[in-house]
Design a protein that fits this description.
With 296 residues, the chain is α/β, with parallel strands linked by helices. It has twelve helices and ten strands. A six-stranded parallel beta sheet has the order 4-3-1-2-9-10, with helices on both faces.
């Protein structure tokens, strides 16, 4: 009898179908759990992205994290688009080789210039702080955005916010002195207070209802910013917004690390690891270990 003449195979018993379905589900669950143990990759042009890491540690206490800060080549804001894109993709590829399950662009300059390039090359999801901040600001009608001159001049926040909230009015203010004041540790210094008041005066004159902190250094100034703007203005912390986006995405992809093992945090820098560790502990609010020097 030829193959075509053979009687059709008997149907798979329901019990066997259930068994096969169970095996498939167990396999997918095993794959998800294996993927869940992979770290989250976070990167920044320097140290500011550690506020994102801190928010992730607090929101997702079981997640392993690999951080990269390009301390040898910071600041990025004075560099060309081509150079920023090259550095950004180089770092993204480094983290992808660490088998990360997700990439987080924690630098506003990188996000403004090269987020789409990273998304095009990455086999894993990519999130960036500008989009996270824009999503969280969409309830505002009169939205103020503060950031470094490079970020403000890129208009990246205004475009992103308008994508989610086209009827909102946006008022931007560059705050060039905030980053050095934060890195100096002058978080509640009178000089910092006067600087904040001066920078925010034009935004408060516009009667903003929302203020987006468009730089990852700025969350350390939140108590002072709150004092100056008052309780009526909503503060959008892009670090906290990013942590919420990451939590939501990991849940949707079934990639959240269930724990309860102690997470591992690794930090890679390209220069002055001791300075990074010293200032970084102020950003994290905890001790900072496992700092590795990368020489390119």
């Amino acid at each position: 009898m030829s193959i075509s003449d053979q009687p059709p195979s008997p149907p798979i018993p329901r019990s066997r179908e259930s068994t096969l379905k169970g095996i498939k589900e167990q396999t997918l669950d095993l794959y998800a759990r294996q993927g869940a143990n992979r770290p989250i990759g976070v990167f920044d042009s320097g140290i500011g992205g550690l506020t994102v890491v801190r928010a992730l540690m607090e929101r997702l206490p079981y997640e392993n994290i690999v951080y990269f800060g390009d301390t040898a080549r910071v600041p990025y804001g004075v560099k060309s688009v081509e150079t920023i894109t090259h550095f950004t993709t180089q770092i993204a590829q480094f983290l992808l080789e660490k088998d990360v399950k997700l990439l987080v662009i924690a630098c506003n300059t990188m996000a403004a210039v090269a987020a789409q390039v990273v998304k095009n090359l990455s086999p894993v999801p990519v999130l960036d702080v500008i989009d996270a901040g824009a999503v969280s600001a969409r309830g505002g009608k009169k939205i103020g955005v503060i950031g470094t001159p490079t970020t403000i001049n890129s208009n990246a926040y205004a475009r992103a916010i308008h994508d989610y909230s086209p009827d909102s009015r946006i008022h931007s203010q560059a705050c060039a002195l905030f980053v050095p004041l934060v890195e100096e540790g002058w978080l509640d210094h009178e000089v910092t207070r006067l600087t904040v008041q001066d920078y925010l005066k034009p935004l408060l004159a516009e009667h903003i209802d929302t203020l987006v902190l468009g730089c990852t250094h700025y969350p350390l100034l939140k108590p002072l910013l709150r004092e100056v703007v008052g309780d009526e203005v909503a503060l959008v912390d892009s670090a906290e917004a990013m942590a919420e986006q990451v939590a939501r995405l990991l849940g949707e992809k079934q990639l959240a690390n269930p724990g309860p093992a102690q997470p591992r945090y690794d930090f890679y820098v390209t220069d002055v690891p001791l300075r990074f560790q010293t200032i970084g502990e102020r950003f994290l609010g905890r001790s900072l270990n496992n700092v590795h020097l990368v020489k390119w």
